[in-house]
Amino acid sequence: MHHLQFDFLVDKEKNTITVKREFAAGRSLVWDCYTKSELLDQWFAPKPFTTKTKSMDFSEGGHWIYAMVDPEGTEYWGRTDYTKIQPIDFYHSLDAFCDAEGNVNPEMPRAEWEVTFTDLNNNALVQTIVTYKSLADLETVIQMGMEEGLKLTLEKLDELLLVLNK
Question: Across residues 70-87, what is the average pLDDT?
């Protein structure tokens, strides 16, 4: 299997992180993995964490409330609010840390996500541009290990796609 593209680019002038990641699967299957809770629950957390969805409404104005759960059972809650959706091409969302009820934690950085799905030969390329309000917010998530966490998380998606592609 050839090496799948993974770029993690930080722009401290624009307060953005741009992630480009290639997947060995068709674009509509990768789209489903990003937009359906039963599939997100199987990959959207770095090993050894697992993911569980509390509620999901993948529509403009809808949201996804989920927890990343560590091996001891501690839950770290997140919330994604969907602002714009163009099926299998892109979606835009607002990402936040929250409590189990979905109340946003104002002490933690919020970010805008623009996630774009394109064909790359027989594979899919997902480009995610994450924009933070300030350089401090950007540096907070980098120090929290976002790059390594994302790398491990996307490897779990690779494993899921191998199973789904059979």
Answer: 98
